[in-house]
Design brief:
Radius of gyration: 30 Å
Shape: flat
Largest sheet: 5 strands, parallel
Mean pLDDT: 76
Distance between the termini: 87 Å
Strand content: 5-15%
Structural class: alpha/beta
Helix content: 40-55%
């Protein structure tokens, strides 16, 4: 028999709720607790979030690495009784850029941001593409007042540009040019891994204003405080080739590229918010005459010994002019180490020498993409820039990568258009000026009334004229020292050959002779490294010291001495030139 009391109690509870009576006290208390625990915090969160979204506060934050500080400072100063904005950074040319606060009636202002390729290095001041662009305005539109300001700096990555783009608005620009992409892997940093439940929760949190406030002190994994100095992470004090962790670790590479796209989009959106159009450049690079800085190799033990023998044999065949044999050797080593960038590069060289232009070009691109110490923009960066330009109105693309390829003397751009890996030559900068002016005029990006659309009436730079030495002897010497640091021995030889063909008077004879001596020494080194001579006498210390002192590179000289004695045990009067380890 069922107990009447236990059977009737649930019915009584139900009757009080279904009939509109009072709720059971225990259930009511439970719901009140749930309301206090879940609903009230949610309502409070939504209220605070709503207030924070209404307030004009800056909540911009990078979700993976905390970036604090600004790369450039903008101040307002009085100079000769005139008010100026002064932009300061040691990498600017000049380090303090003065812009009149009061823009003249009818004047147009063009502002360019980017890295050292944008600011005209290593040429003398006055030889950047912006200087040439301004000259084109003077030649073609002498009645128009067009001012150009260059805020490019050595090593500036997109996240550095993002820190000061907001301050550009006060300059009242009429056009913003973005030339950035070579420096994304330069500075040492590490990002939080973007995988797993923890990352998903984190991503949800940092999309809220409250989460962005918390992220400044809790969620970030590493802080970067920006200053005037860019610390290059792809080589160290022992002049060893050093892979960037950002490039060697696939998860890190993906984040760098994602952050790059976020930064470029944020910079563009900032400019478009001022109702200012944007000129966006893809990033050209020296493909033919600059081999990868660091190559990845995973083989070990006997397999690596055999692979290294094949690699050395392939180089030897190439420098002996046996290009088919070199091709066979490098295809073999790539089958073992498909991610080894330098093998891809030399296969490209061997294919080009056999007239296989398309295959050669593909290998040059692949070699650049596989570089684990990248100073050149990866191919995916240029694809990102093209995608952004295609999606956004008032963003106009100048595809410099393709333009430089079409203007190259060979199958791919080399020292005909670059003085090193990414900095354009005198001619290269004039190509940029021509294409920029062409796009500005074609779309009338400055809104100049009465602007002609007749292409035949526009004066461009003649790219066939002889190039003057816009670099100068001192800078050439510093460049060659930089090439040595980066182990670019073949680059020195190739550039020497190129410069020896320059018209007399364009480059000082002393510079020619000095470059030729460098090339001769390093050509001997290449012969030694490729196994042509089992024992090879080298430049003695006195001669080597004369080179290094002349280049203001004493530290490099002393490091080579220590490295040689420590690793090679050679007599003091014989010294190999920066042993070039294969990675």
């Amino acid at each position: 028999m069922v107990d009447d009391d236990t059977e009737s109690r649930p019915d009584a509870d139900l009757s009080t709720t279904r009939g509109g009576g009072s709720m059971n006290p225990r259930r009511k208390k439970l719901l009140a607790k749930l309301f206090l625990v879940f609903v009230m915090p949610a309502m409070f969160f939504m209220a605070v979030e709503g207030v924070l979204r209404i307030l004009p506060l800056d909540f911009e934050t990078e979700p993976a690495v905390k970036i604090e500080g600004s790369t450039a400072s903008f101040t307002e100063e009085t100079i000769n009784n005139e008010r100026y904005y002064v932009a300061s950074n040691e990498s600017f040319r000049p380090p303090k850029i003065k812009i009149p606060r009061d823009k003249q009636q009818g004047a147009f202002r063009i502002v360019s941001i980017g890295g050292s390729a944008s600011n005209g290095l290593p040429h003398a001041v006055g030889n950047s593409y912006l200087d040439y662009l301004q000259d084109l305005f003077v030649q073609n539109l002498p009645d128009q007042n067009v001012e150009v300001y260059n805020f490019g700096g050595s090593g500036f990555a997109s996240y550095r540009l993002r820190t000061f783009i907001g301050q550009i608005e006060q300059l009242q620009p009429d056009l913003v040019i973005i030339y950035s992409g070579n420096n994304e892997f330069v500075e040492a940093r590490r990002y939080a891994t973007r995988s797993g439940m923890t990352w998903r929760i984190r991503q949800f949190i940092v999309k809220t204003r409250i989460g962005q406030l918390l992220s400044r002190s809790i969620l970030q994994t590493k802080q970067i405080v920006l200053n005037n100095t860019v610390e290059i992470a792809v080589y160290d004090d022992t002049i060893q080739k050093k892979a960037s962790n950002l490039r060697a670790e696939p998860g890190q590479t993906e984040i760098v590229l994602s952050e790059y796209e976020d930064n470029i989009r944020a910079i563009i959106d900032e400019a478009l918010g001022w109702q200012v159009p944007v000129l966006l450049f893809t990033i050209p690079a020296n493909l033919r005459d600059w081999r990868p800085h660091v190559s990845f190799s995973k083989s070990e033990g006997p397999e690596r010994v055999k692979w290294l023998q094949d690699f050395t044999r392939g180089r030897g065949c190439f420098f002996d002019g046996e290009y088919k044999e070199a091709e066979v050797a490098f295809r073999k080593v790539i089958s073992v180490e498909p991610l080894h960038a330098e093998s891809c590069y030399f296969l490209g060289r061997a294919l080009e020498m056999q007239g296989q232009k398309e295959s050669s070009f593909d290998m040059y691109l692949q070699a650049k993409e596989l570089d684990y110490g990248p100073f050149r923009a990866l191919n995916v960066i240029n694809e990102t820039l093209r995608k952004i330009a295609g999606e956004k109105e008032q963003v106009y693309l100048v595809d410099l990568e393709r333009e430089f390829i079409s203007c190259a003397e060979g199958v791919a751009p080399g020292f005909d258009l670059f003085v090193d890996y990414c900095h354009p030559t005198y001619r290269g900068n004039r190509i940029i000026a021509n294409k920029s002016f062409e796009r500005i005029v074609a779309d009338n990006l400055l809104g100049i009334s009465g602007l002609t659309s007749d292409e035949s009436a526009i004066q461009y730079y003649d790219l066939r004229e002889t190039e003057p030495d816009s670099v100068g002897q001192y800078t050439w010497n510093k460049l060659f020292a930089w090439y040595v640091v980066l182990h670019q021995h073949e680059a020195i030889i190739a550039l020497s050959n190129k410069l020896q063909t320059v018209e007399e008077g364009m480059i000082a004879q002393g510079t020619r002779n000095h470059i030729a001596r460098w090339a001769a020494v390093l050509a001997e080194y290449e012969e030694f490294k490729n196994g042509k001579y089992p024992v090879k006498p080298w430049v003695d210390q006195a001669e080597l010291k004369k080179f290094s002192v002349h280049l203001d590179f004493k530290r490099l000289y002393h490091e080579m001495i220590r490295k040689s004695q420590r690793e090679n045990g050679l007599p003091d009067h014989k010294l190999p030139w920066l042993r070039d380890e294969v990675y």
